Each structure stands twice: as structure tokens, then as C-alpha cells.
Amino acid sequence: MFDVVRVHHRFCAVAVCAAHEVSAGAVDDRFRAAVRATKIGPAQDIPHITVELIHKYLTDLKKLGVL
């Protein structure tokens, strides 16, 4: 469970960095490069989040008392 939270925090940090770009194309390129640099997931690319994973995140956050 804590690994999921740690990956989520890394993913959010990458998203915040990428959000400072002005051009949508530049945001996409910078975001993808930042995600690839952190080597998240087996594809080491922007992960696709399933509905099941979202439900797991919510369940884990509720168990931690965050929600």
C-alpha cells in the first residue's frame, strides 16, 4: 500500500513540474520525459490507470484515514 502512495507522490511531482509549460505540446513532451526519467511502471512510460486501481487508491486512502 505504501508503495502505491510513494509512486502516486512521484507521479504528482512530475505532473506539477510539467504543468509549468505554456504550450500543450511542450507539456506533453516534458511530462512524458519526466515520467520516463523516473522509470515508473513496466513500460517506463505514462501509466494507464484502470478503474480498479482508482478504487484501490480510494480504499487505501480511506484505510489511512486520509479520506
Structurally, the number of domains stands at 1
How would you characterize the largest beta sheet?
none
Mean pLDDT: 75
Gyration radius over CA: 13 Å
Beta-strand proportion: under 5%
Structural class: mainly alpha
| Cα distance spanning the termini | 15 Å
Total strand count, please? 0
Residues in helix, %: 55-70%
Helical run tally: 3
| Morphology call | elongated
The unreliable regions are none
Order of helices and strands: HHH
Organism: Mycolicibacterium fluoranthenivorans
Protein name: Thioester reductase-like protein
Descriptive report:
It is a single chain. This protein has 67 residues and is an all-alpha fold. It has one domain (2-63). Helix content is 67%, strand content 0%. It contains 3 helices and no strands. Helix 1 packs antiparallel against helix 2 (24-38). The model has no long low-confidence stretch (mean pLDDT 75). This is Thioester reductase-like protein.
Write the layout of secondary structure elements.
Layout (H helix, E strand, L loop, with lengths): L1 H17 L5 H15 L12 H13 L4
Helix pairs in contact: 1-2
Summarize the structure.
This is Thioester reductase-like protein. It comes from Mycolicibacterium fluoranthenivorans. By secondary structure, the protein is mainly α.
Question: Keywords for this structure?
Answer:
67 residues; mainly alpha; 3 helices; Thioester reductase-like protein
